[in-house]
């Protein structure tokens, strides 16, 4: 795969970024476009995402692709949810018939993952509960999970008393925590209190090295899909 990175200054205007996207939409060298989020405050994220050619939207965030995912006929599944699904399936934890609790409602992870896993299709068919910052009695809900996905963005937010024995835990969090003992001055921690929760869990993903590499892999899958769609059509 050929790739090119366009590093833009933080003072880039919305119009300038739209011009670049328009040129990439029309450039046959590129089958996929990924806009690194978040964007500077002067640029409206929704405007930029909607400017992408849906057939080149390898993040799966364009409203067209979100709608196709909701209908159960996606061209592109957002990379992190797709990676989570593959982690479960390839390790023998088919979500079918299981109660999956998703902690987080972002457009990148929480919402598309819930949509993906409740579909009537192989690799899905789960009963899904989505929790968020306004959820009351969070621990009461997370303790019901057969599969718990933590995508909160707060280090060690999920503790051992919030899960049941035998739970399968997917930790999506990547949080920088100050650590003067590390050369970089910080360490990475997930949203789950790994040591304590792993003592109760049947399976748990580490941070780093768990969901992150799968996200990258599924972005490559989406890029291949985009190339096929461009060449062969639907």
Automatic annotation (TrEMBL):
The keyword NADP applies. The keyword NADP applies. Pfam families: THF_DHG_CYH, THF_DHG_CYH_C. It catalyses: (6R)-5,10-methenyltetrahydrofolate + H2O = (6R)-10-formyltetrahydrofolate + H(+). Keywords: Hydrolase, Multifunctional enzyme, NADP, One-carbon metabolism, Oxidoreductase. PROSITE patterns: THF_DHG_CYH_1, THF_DHG_CYH_2. SUPFAM superfamilies: Aminoacid dehydrogenase-like, N-terminal domain, NAD(P)-binding Rossmann-fold domains. GO terms for biological process: tetrahydrofolate interconversion. GO terms for cellular component: cytosol. GO terms for molecular function: methenyltetrahydrofolate cyclohydrolase activity; methylenetetrahydrofolate dehydrogenase (NADP+) activity. Residues 78-228 form the Tetrahydrofolate dehydrogenase/cyclohydrolase NAD(P)-binding domain. Pathway: One-carbon metabolism; tetrahydrofolate interconversion. Residues 3-59 form the Tetrahydrofolate dehydrogenase/cyclohydrolase catalytic domain. This is Bifunctional protein FolD.
């Amino acid at each position: 795969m050929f790739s090119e990175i366009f590093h833009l200054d933080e003072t880039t205007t919305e119009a300038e970024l739209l011009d670049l996207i328009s040129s990439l939409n029309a450039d046959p060298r590129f089958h996929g476009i990924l806009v690194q989020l978040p964007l500077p405050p002067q640029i409206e994220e929704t405007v930029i995402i909607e400017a992408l050619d849906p057939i080149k939207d390898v993040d799966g965030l364009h409203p067209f692709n979100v709608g196709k995912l909701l209908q159960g006929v996606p061209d592109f599944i957002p990379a992190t949810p797709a990676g989570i699904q593959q982690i479960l399936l390839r390790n023998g934890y088919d979500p079918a018939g299981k109660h999956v609790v998703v902690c987080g409602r972002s457009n990148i992870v929480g919402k598309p993952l819930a949509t993906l896993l409740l579909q009537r299709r192989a690799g899905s068919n789960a009963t899904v509960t989505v929790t968020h910052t306004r959820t009351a009695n969070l621990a009461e809900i997370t303790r019901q999970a057969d599969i718990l996905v933590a995508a909160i963005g707060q280090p060690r937010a999920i503790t051992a008393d919030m899960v049941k024995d035998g739970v399968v835990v997917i930790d999506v969090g990547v949080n920088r925590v100050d650590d003067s003992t590390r050369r970089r001055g910080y360490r990475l921690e997930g949203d789950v209190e790994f040591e304590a929760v792993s003592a109760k869990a049947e399976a748990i993903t580490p941070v780093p090295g768990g969901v992150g590499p799968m996200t990258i892999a599924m972005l490559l899958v989406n890029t291949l899909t985009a190339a096929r769609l461009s060449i062969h059509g639907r």
